[in-house]
Amino acid sequence: MTSANRLDHALKRLTVALDQLEAATERRLKTAAQRTDIEEEFAVLQDDRARLAVELDGAVARSQSLELANNEVARRLAKARETIEEMISHVVM
């Protein structure tokens, strides 16, 4: 093999190696960009989860408050019914 042939062969190997390095770099950059996108989406999901947890806590508190109010209204209605029934029984007799 002559010096020129060896040089051409070495240049071809160098070109192939550089092409492979460039392709690997592009894949690495694409992977890094995808990872960044995934991390951003994960952060958004965490924020949504935290917001929903706060909203759920508020809804549970309101539900408990409404349940207490409902029980109080039911108690008062029962008392009013008893009073009315007692009054009617006195009028009828």
Layout of secondary structure:
Layout: H1 3-92
What key phrases describe this protein's structure?
93 residues, mainly alpha, 97% helix, 0% strand
Walk me through the structure:
The mean pLDDT is 94. This protein is an all-alpha fold and 93 residues long. Helices cover 97% and strands 0% of the residues. It is rod-shaped and about 135 Å long. It has one helix spanning 3-92. The chain contains one helix and no strands.
The outline comes out as rod-shaped
Distance between the termini: 132 Å
Bin the strand percentage.
under 5%
How many strand elements?
0
Q: Rounded to an integer, what's the Rg over CA atoms? A: 40 Å
Give the helices and strands as they follow along the chain. H
Report the helical percentage.
over 70%
Structural class: mainly alpha
Poorly predicted runs: none
- The residue-averaged pLDDT reads 94
What count of helical segments does DSSP give? 1
Q: Biggest β-sheet, characterized?
A: none
Would you summarize the structure shown here?
With 93 residues, the protein is an all-alpha fold.
